[in-house]
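User: Fold this; tokens only.

Assistant: Input:
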Amino acid sequence: MSEHLPDESIENIEPPEVKLTVPQLSDATSAISETLEKLEIPEAPEIEKTWLVVAKNRRILRDWEALMQRHPENTHRCYRDLCTAPTTRQPGRVFPLKGKKYQGVWEYEVTKGDRVFDVPDEEQMKVVVFYAGKHIQPAPTP
């Protein structure tokens, strides 16, 4: 005889990965982009590879969206960097964490007080964001 799980236990299960919301740029940022084009200053290099960027669960997606509301331009830059080169170091901004429990974990400084922690998977070309929000000590574990 098989036992069925009650419906309420299904609600407690953490949902699977969800694709992150793409940050939209404000009109002011669009004007800056147009100015850069007129000055022939490249805004970003051509994208050769595009990584899939996903949130670990819906709670992380909610935190990501709150971060987009607070700092849209910085979050847009973070998203672009995660899509194009998530394992490229940027001194003081993007770097891997040290220690056994943080193996494969990268930290992205979105602002002075906000961070995104992620785990890039080069085989699947996927970045799983497991924390987005205020800088906390110690760093969260995936």
